C-alpha cells in the first residue's frame, strides 16, 4: 500500500516537471502555425482580455478628470499609445481566427451568420442599454423630455447601421463637468471590423483562399490600393491601420503551414523594430514585431485553460469599458490613474461576463 501511495505521489510530482520540460522544448524548437492550430489550445482568450483592459488604461487620460496624459508606451518611445496597440492586437487576432473560421466552414452563409451572431447581439444590447437605461439615469434633462428627444433614439438607429458617422452623445448626458461627453468612444472600431468580415467573405466566395499565393497577392493589392486610393473603399481613414493588422492576421493563417513560431524570431523582429524606430518603415516593422510577440505568447507559453471555463468576456469588456470609465469619472472625479483604471476594469469585466453568460454564449448556439 505504501509503495502504491509513493508511486502515485511521484507521478503527480512528475507531471508538472514533464509539462515544464515539454514547454521548454517547444520554446527552443518552435512550432509551425499549422501544428499549433492542431493542438486546439492557445492563449488568445487571455490576450484579448488583456487587450480590452489595456484599452481602458489608454482611455483614462481622455476621460478621467484627475488623470494626465501619462501613457506608459508613449513614454517608452514606442510611437503608439496603449489604446492603439490593444486595438491592433484585437484586429490581428481577429483576422487570424476569422479566416480559419471561413476556411473550415467553406460557406459564405454560415460565415456571415456566425459573424452576425458574434458581433450584433452584444452591440445591440450595448447601444440600447446606453440610450434607454444609462442615459436615462444620468441625463440632466427631465426623463420624459429625454425620451422625447430625437437624438436619444437616433443614437440606437444610427449606430446599428455600422457607418463611419456614428452617434457619440446623448441629450444632457455628461454635457458638463467631464473631459468628454462621448458615451462610448470604443465603438469606432466595430464598423471597420464588419467591413473586414465582408472583404474576407467576398474573397472566400471567389475562391481566392484556395491558393495561398493568390490570396497573398490579392490582400497586398487591396491594402496598397486602399492606401493610394482610399476613395474607392467604404473605409474611414482611421480604419486603414487596423485593417492592415487584420490582413496581417489573414496572411499568417493562409501561410500557416510555412510559418514557424520561434522565440528567437520574435526577439529579432522586436530588435528590428527598435533599430528602425526613426525610419519610415517603422510602421511595418512594428506590426511584424507585434505579430511575433502575440503569436509567441499565444502558442509558446503555458495555456491558461482554467480561464476558459468562465467564458469569453473580452468583447463585452471592450464594449462596456468606455461607459464604465465615464461612470467612474462621474461618481469618483478625483480618482487618480490607478484607482480610475481599477474601478473601471472591475465594472467593465462584470458587464463583460454578464454579457457573455446571458447573451453572447446563447446567441452562439444558433451557429
Question: Please, could you describe this protein's structure?
Answer:
The protein has 16 helices and two strands. Helix 5 (82-105) runs parallel beside helix 9 (190-205). The chain has 367 residues and is mainly α. The chain has helices spanning 2-29, 33-39, 44-63, 72-75, 82-105, 108-138, 143-148, 150-160, 190-205, 212-228, 239-254, 263-275, 282-299, 305-308, 314-331, 337-364; strands at 31-32, 260-261. It has a two-stranded antiparallel ribbon with strand order 1-2. It has one domain (32-364).
Concise overview:
The protein has 367 residues and is mostly helical. 71% of the residues lie in helices and 1% in strands.
Structural descriptors:
mainly alpha, transmembrane helix, acyltransferase, globular, 1% strand, two-stranded antiparallel ribbon, membrane, Acyltransferase_3, acyltransferase activity, 367 residues
